């Protein structure tokens, strides 16, 4: 465990000593010694200390990336006669937890990063504006990946099915809208205490409202572009009900984690394990509630315990990873890079496996024709290529940071040409 250094916010000499200590920790601890950050703490606003880095968050994100890639490959390439049976169904359910982990960590990591510059985000400073710009680009990219025709002028020829496919809400749109909502909540709530109350309250409300949202046919009352954000009936895979709930509750827990860190990583792990176990108990009890409102159908997504159960599992897994890495200063480089470059890997493997307006996918060529051994080999090859892609881009971005922006713009323009 990292040795603690506590610095009194009103003692200049102690602050100077704290600055020296920070240099010895390098980037492995989050340390702030400016008195304007005193309000960051929910528990001890007069104290600022060195906190150990939560490498488990990076590890959880990397593991979720690997699960996501293999899951999509399995879905697109494995022949139907092998994609059945209890073992496959169990593995399919476990693979679905990667989406839960991604959306939960989006809120969790948002809160930890925002707490370090809370006042700048409250004022919508430079860091907040840059984040909003990135989220808007993710939002646009989510739709671009499902663009159905060459050229916007041909959108007029789309059938109803084509519009449903194009306007479906996928994970990029869900995460973008959810995190933009979190950014807005920071501005509105002003303090971290109110932010915790708002995120935990809204996240719980999303869970409770999900079955009710699915009872109404939103396509009949709203445009298709909006209905997809409310329920799956319009063809969306990641409507905000329930998926925004994972990000909201993750953000609330991430904000609390900033204070729990003062007692060490093991304390954070125990807290997350406790919350996760509580949610698993709640999900179990939920099965006994009256079905007419709380469980309007036999589909698991139609019940509030869909969120409680999966979030509970995600928190238990994150707590176990925290215990496992409590003495780990840093991850192996390839795991850290995979976690950092999760968006790049998501985009690259989806267009490779499923195809897009820019290219035919493996599903179009060999989809549903491979046996277990060939599918396993394809998964290894694609996972390896994604890791190499992430390592290559990360190395280039660090060695030539002045070229990172121009290269991104060049890629964006090249991808946009077929859409115009």
Give the structure's gist in a few sentences.
With 420 residues, the protein is mostly helical.
Word description of this protein:
It is a single chain. The protein has 420 residues and is mostly helical. Helix content is 67%, strand content 2%. The protein contains 19 helices and four strands. The chain has helices at 12-25, 55-77, 86-95, 97-116, 118-122, 126-144, 160-166, 171-189, 192-213, 224-227, 240-260, 265-286, 291-294, 305-324, 333-340, 342-354, 362-366, 372-399, 401-416; strands at residues 6-8, 29-30, 47-49, 51-52. Strands 1-3 form a two-stranded antiparallel ribbon. α2 crosses α18. The radius of gyration is 22 Å and the shape is globular.
Structural class: mainly alpha
Question: How many DSSP E strands?
Answer: 4
Number of helices: 19
Report on the biggest sheet.
Answer: 2 strands, antiparallel
| Main β-sheet, spatial strand arrangement | 1-3
Basic shape: globular
Low-confidence stretches: 1-50
Integer-rounded radius of gyration: 22 Å
């Amino acid at each position: 465990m990292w040795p603690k250094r506590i610095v009194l916010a009103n003692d200049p000499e102690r602050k100077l000593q704290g600055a020296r200590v920070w240099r010895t920790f390098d980037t492995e601890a989050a340390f702030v010694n400016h008195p304007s950050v005193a309000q960051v703490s929910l528990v001890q606003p007069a104290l600022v200390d060195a906190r150990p880095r939560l490498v488990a968050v990076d590890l959880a994100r990397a593991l979720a990336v690997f699960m996501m890639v293999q899951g999509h490959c399995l879905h697109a390439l494995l022949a139907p006669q092998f994609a059945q049976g209890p073992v496959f169904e169990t593995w399919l359910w476990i693979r679905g937890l990667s989406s839960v982990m991604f959306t939960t960590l989006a809120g969790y990591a948002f809160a930890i990063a925002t707490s370090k510059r809370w006042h700048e985000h409250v004022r919508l400073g430079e860091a907040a504006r840059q984040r909003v710009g990135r989220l808007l680009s993710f939002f646009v990219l989510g739709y671009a990946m499902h663009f159905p025709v060459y050229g916007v002028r041909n959108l007029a020829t789309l059938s109803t099915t084509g519009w449903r496919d194009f306007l479906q809400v996928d994970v990029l749109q869900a995460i973008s809208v959810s995190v933009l909502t979190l950014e807005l909540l920071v501005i509105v709530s002003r303090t971290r205490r109110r932010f915790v109350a708002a995120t935990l309250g809204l996240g719980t409300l999303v869970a409770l409202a999900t079955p009710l949202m699915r009872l109404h046919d939103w396509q009949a009352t709203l445009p298709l572009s909006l209905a997809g954000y409310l329920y799956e009936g319009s063809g969306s895979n990641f409507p905000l009900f329930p998926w925004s709930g994972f990000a909201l509750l993750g953000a609330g827990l991430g904000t609390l984690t900033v204070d729990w860190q003062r007692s060490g990583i093991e304390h954070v792990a125990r807290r997350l394990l406790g919350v996760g176990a509580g949610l698993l108990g709640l999900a179990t009890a939920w099965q006994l509630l009256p079905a007419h409102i709380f469980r309007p159908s036999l589909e698991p997504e139609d019940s509030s315990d869909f969120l409680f159960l999966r979030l509970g599992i995600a928190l238990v897994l994150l707590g176990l990873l925290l215990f496992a890495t409590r003495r780990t200063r840093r991850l192996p480089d390839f795991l850290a890079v995979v976690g950092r470059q999760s968006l790049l890997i998501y985009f690259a493997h989806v267009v490779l496996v499923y195809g897009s307006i820019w290219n035919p996918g493996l599903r179009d060529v060999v989809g549903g024709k491979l046996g277990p051994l060939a599918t396993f080999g394809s998964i290894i090859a694609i996972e390896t290529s994604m890791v190499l892609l992430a390592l290559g881009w990360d190395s280039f971005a660090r060695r030539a940071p002045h070229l990172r922006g121009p290269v991104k713009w060049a890629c964006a323009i090249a991808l946009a040409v077929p859409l115009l």
